Predict the 3D structure of the following.
Amino acid sequence: MPFNKAAQNPNFEAVVRDSFARQPFMEHVGARMTAIEPGICEISLDHDKALTQQHGFFHGGLVGSLIDSAAGYAAFSLYPEKSTVLTVDMKVNFLKPAKGKLLSARAEVVRGDGKIYHLKGDAFCMEGETKTHCATGVFTMMCFLGMDDAPNLGRES
Amino acid sequence: MPFNKAAQNPNFEAVVRDSFARQPFMEHVGARMTAIEPGICEISLDHDKALTQQHGFFHGGLVGSLIDSAAGYAAFSLYPEKSTVLTVDMKVNFLKPAKGKLLSARAEVVRGDGKIYHLKGDAFCMEGETKTHCATGVFTMMCFLGMDDAPNLGRES
Amino acid sequence: MPFNKAAQNPNFEAVVRDSFARQPFMEHVGARMTAIEPGICEISLDHDKALTQQHGFFHGGLVGSLIDSAAGYAAFSLYPEKSTVLTVDMKVNFLKPAKGKLLSARAEVVRGDGKIYHLKGDAFCMEGETKTHCATGVFTMMCFLGMDDAPNLGRES
Amino acid sequence: MPFNKAAQNPNFEAVVRDSFARQPFMEHVGARMTAIEPGICEISLDHDKALTQQHGFFHGGLVGSLIDSAAGYAAFSLYPEKSTVLTVDMKVNFLKPAKGKLLSARAEVVRGDGKIYHLKGDAFCMEGETKTHCATGVFTMMCFLGMDDAPNLGRES
């Protein structure tokens, strides 16, 4: 009964990692893709003062942003070739302050068809042996067919 | 019938701007508070390649993050002294790609009582004369009484 | 800059009202469509003990349900012929107890294109001269093309 | 690391079932509480034409309503005595048409403290051997202390 997560594109990992590498904002916050399999993605980043809010915790917007990115790439991993992904909506509940050395967001496709993919995602903070579940959410992603994820760099010049 | 947005703290603007200035993540993305009045807040930032996703638009997570921050400070502007704000949940629908020179997020308290504040928020992109409504959302904020928004820096040393 | 709500189907009102009339659940709760124009819909119902929760107010789930229906038909009013509507997701914040003689839900399209429509919706309670804003939300609707909203009753027999 | 769901009120089951029995709307739709344990609740109902939308499936608003009720009672099961529960917000994604003989909603507390409880909830349809996961969502509930869940019937007369 759980949704059968099968990749349509055998090169899904290369496609997803290439797209992630073309997101300057993910680089700007020091995020790296720490896991990718069909329908599942994990993105993590280390604590840095530049990423915090007024109490020294990871900024909530950043936490939501990281789960959203993990959700987008979890969905994208199941898409066919020649397609791209767009977030339709994101919903995040904040459970605990995001306090720790490492922030990790993990998302998973709950169900998806040609156009619409539904995902759940969570964020965790790690500090030594302590793992804190700091946020949980639900996301909707769209699959755009016939549109390349990579911009045509030649044309842009 | 609309919610009467009256500030309980006469120094609300100084309190809000001070808190915002203590959020390193907002500085990291180049955000500035462009409007603050009781129950309303606007935060804006200029386009920078470091803030984009793979198609060159503002990253969706950043857009959500900016509205969330505006919502948090719109709520905080109505709080009494000796309190702080925490996002309970954020929900953002993405309407259009966030394409433009300037990204501006504006949020407004819909209703609030002692503990729970409900807000709506929107993000707009400006490019020359063109203003694009790129995201809309609903947010829930909590008011923590008896807890200072500013960390006790002396103790942290 | 606000989204231009133009009906593609000149018979939108008849189509929407016909679909609403084929929803037994709306009849079961005594709901009636009190306004319909391109991109906007209002659905209302009178207080009845059968519709309440333990404190005698309208049940929160019913309030959410009514806004969701108004949102669905607000979107549907903008769809082309030979299409049907499905809720992708609903998000409702509850602002005040839904106390009153009349419950009224009103939704409006914020933006929509071929497939995905984004809406905002609100619920109000009326008791004498008092109008209470009891809930607010954001909704995503899908437009299914080439699928009739009315079931082919002949084929089903 | 998962949230430890321990009931504070040893009579939680009686309290929850009593509250549910005082919700006329749940009776109006034929809902029954099919499981209750600390932090978990399941509510189910049988197919009835009165509960459907235009395609003969369970009405989406009803599906959302049922998960919301399950979420409310899952949270309430963890509350101390002399308290009541209120939904702060509900977010439901619709995965598949709710087609079946039986509709069952199940919710679980993800985390909760004195005031705010975060829950996840799902709805399933059963038809013979087929179980369809038709909706998933995230909910926020508030715990009101010092307020009885049961109205004082004597005073109301």
The radius of gyration of chain D is 16 Å. The mean pLDDT of chain D is 93. Residues 60-76 of chain D form the longest helix (17 residues). DSSP finds four helices and six strands in chain D.
